[in-house]
UniProtKB/TrEMBL annotation:
Residues 119-129 have a biased composition (Polar residues). PANTHER family: SINGLE-STRANDED DNA-BINDING PROTEIN (PTHR10302), SINGLE-STRANDED DNA-BINDING PROTEIN, MITOCHONDRIAL (PTHR10302:SF0). NCBIfam families: ssb. Pfam families: SSB. Keywords: DNA-binding. GO terms for molecular function: DNA binding. Homotetramer. Residues 106-156 are annotated as: Disordered. The keyword Lipoprotein does not apply. This is Single-stranded DNA-binding protein. Residues 130-148 have a biased composition (Low complexity). The keyword DNA-binding applies. It comes from the Bacteria.
Length: 156
């Protein structure tokens, strides 16, 4: 039987990405992403629930995140869920759930810019109306990100 592990999130960065470079020069970036939903409770009061997701980007995507992403910006993330098991200092069994991103689209331009358009970084090196596509497996970030005034292809 086939199985699928796919996550799609649109949210806001909770803090600037933390980027580390491993021994082989491979970059890894981590940041929290907040997604929110509003609903009415039983008494008719409007409630908001925010869910926090731990995002992990590797190689080229990590370098793009380091260069362009900042706290508060909106981003579209596509990837898979990964749960790790480890022991804390007291020997207790702990679990950590992360979203390992394969594709990323910046929905906010620049520092605190508008939410129009965006740049897409994903598994192919080409240009589309959604912005600049980027190969997630490459070890270097693009020299610059071209701004695109055309509407994006996202259905929302």
């Amino acid at each position: 039987m086939a199985s699928v592990n796919k996550v799609i999130l649109i949210g806001n960065l909770g803090k600037d990405p933390e980027v580390r470079h491993l021994e082989g020069g491979v970059a890894v970036a981590r940041f929290p992403l907040a997604t929110s939903e509003t609903f009415k409770d039983k008494s008719g009061q409007k409630q908001e629930k925010t869910e926090w997701h731990n995002i992990v980007l590797w190689r080229g995507l990590a370098e793009v995140a380091e260069k362009y992403l900042r706290k508060g910006q909106s981003v579209f993330i596509e990837g898979k869920i990964r749960t790790s098991q480890y022991q804390d200092k007291e020997g207790n069994q702990r679990y950590s759930t992360e979203i390992v991103a394969d594709n990323m689209t910046m929905l906010t331009r620049g520092e605190g810019g508008s939410s129009e358009g965006g740049n897409s970084f994903q598994g192919s090196a080409s240009t589309s109306s959604a912005g600049t596509n980027y190969n997630a497996g490459a070890a270097t970030a693009p020299a610059g990100v071209a701004q695109n005034d055309e509407p994006d292809d996202l259905p929302f």
